[in-house]
């Protein structure tokens, strides 16, 4: 994690922007309505202990998208640790093998 953090800091030109950029995205206020209109098969992947967005965000996203599934990554935060790659890839392969509606 330290190497990743050091790499992020080294490549950013503005630390303050890097720390707040996700929170200033303009969604146009149409988030839930836009999500309800999605018809693509959707797999929401969320860390069980995400410090940025609590798990309730993942469940709300799943609930807002018709037919979406939720994969909760156990003991994970806001990243995909190498130890969970097999779980994630198996879920992704299963998800993408489903026929389109």
Features:
globular; 5 helices; 44% helix
Which helices and strands occur, and which strands form pairs?
Elements: H1 2-11, H2 15-20, H3 31-36, E1 43-47, H4 55-64, E2 69-73, H5 85-96
Parallel strand pairs: 1-2
Characterise the protein shown here:
- Helix content is 44%, strand content 10%.
- The chain is mainly alpha-helical and 101 residues long.
- The chain contains 5 helices and 2 strands; from the N terminus they run αααβαβα.
- The protein has a two-stranded parallel ribbon.
- It has helices spanning 2-11, 15-20, 31-36, 55-64, 85-96, and strands at residues 43-47, 69-73.
- It is globular, with a radius of gyration of 16 Å.
- The termini are far apart.
Number of helices: 5
How does the overall form come out from the CA principal axes?
globular
Using the CA coordinates, give the radius of gyration. 16 Å
Major pleated sheet:
2 strands, parallel
Q: Taking all residues together, what is the mean pLDDT?
A: 86
How much strand? 5-15%
Number of strands: 2
Indicate the percent of residues in helices: 40-55%
SS content category = mainly alpha
How would you sum up this structure in a few lines?
The protein has 101 residues and is mainly alpha-helical. The chain has helices at 2-11, 15-20, 31-36, 55-64, 85-96, and strands at 43-47, 69-73. The protein has five helices and two strands; from the N terminus they run H-H-H-E-H-E-H.
